[in-house]
Write a structure and sequence with these properties.
2 domains; alpha+beta; elongated; about 20% strand
Length: about 120
C-alpha cells in the first residue's frame, strides 16, 4: 500500500513539475515574442483535456498607466472582427444557407431605414 501511495505522490509531483516547467517555457516564449514583435502585451489561456492549465497575462495592457495584462483583461479588437464575419458569411454561402445575390432583408428583419443608416447609405 505504501508503494502505491508513494507512486501516486511521485506521479502527482512529476505532473505538477511538468505543468510548471511547461508554463515557464510558454512564458519565456511569449515574453520573447512580445519583445521581438514590439507587442505591449497579451492574455493567454491553455486548456488540456478540458481543464485550464494556464491562464495568465503577459506585458502591459495600458502603456500610459502601466497597467499589467491579466487573464481577465479585455482588449479592443479594432477591425479584425470584419474578417471573421466575412469568413462566416462565405461558409454559409458554401453550405447554401445564404446567397450573396439575395437582399439582406431575406435573412435579417431590420427596418430599412435602420439598415441604410448602419451601412452609411442615404
Amino acid at each position: 500500500m505504501k508503494i502505491l501511495a508513494a507512486s501516486l505522490l511521485t506521479a502527482s509531483m512529476l505532473r505538477a513539475t511538468t505543468v510548471t516547467t511547461v508554463a515557464a517555457r510558454v512564458g519565456d516564449f511569449v515574453d520573447g515574442y512580445l519583445k521581438k514583435k514590439q507587442v505591449p502585451g497579451c492574455a493567454l489561456l491553455v486548456r488540456h483535456n478540458g481543464k485550464v492549465v494556464l491562464a495568465t497575462g503577459y506585458g502591459i495592457a495600458n502603456l500610459e498607466h502601466n497597467v499589467p495584462v491579466k487573464p481577465q483583461t479585455v482588449f479592443q479588437s479594432g477591425s479584425i472582427g470584419k474578417q471573421f464575419t466575412a469568413m462566416a458569411v462565405m461558409l454559409l454561402v458554401e453550405d447554401q444557407k445564404l446567397s450573396l445575390d439575395k437582399p439582406i432583408s431575406k435573412y435579417l428583419t431590420i427596418q430599412r431605414v435602420c439598415l441604410a443608416s448602419l451601412c452609411g447609405i442615404y
